[in-house]
């Protein structure tokens, strides 16, 4: 059942990558200019 563990790790990595991609996209679309 080590496949399930690998699947969970892969799922977490994919989620983190998606979150980072969303953050980067938001930053690119709306640059931080309000201080």
Structure report:
The protein has 35 residues and is mostly helical. It is 80% helix and 0% strand. The chain is built from one helix and no strands. The protein has one helix at residues 2-29. The chain is rod-shaped, with a radius of gyration of 15 Å.
Topology (elements, then pairings):
Layout: H1 2-29
Structure class: mainly alpha
Shape: rod-shaped
Radius of gyration: 15 Å
Share of residues in strands: under 5%
Mean pLDDT: 84
Number of helices: 1
Quick one: biggest sheet? none
As residue ranges, the low-confidence spans are: none
DSSP summary, beta strand count: 0
Oligomer: single chain
Range of helix content? over 70%
Offer a concise description of the structure:
The protein is mostly helical and 35 residues long. It has one helix at residues 2-29. It is rod-shaped and about 45 Å long.
List its salient traits.
mainly alpha; 35 residues
């Amino acid at each position: 059942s080590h496949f399930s563990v690998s699947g969970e790790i892969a799922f977490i990595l994919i989620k983190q990558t998606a979150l980072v991609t969303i953050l980067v996209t938001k930053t690119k679309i709306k640059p931080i200019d309000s201080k």
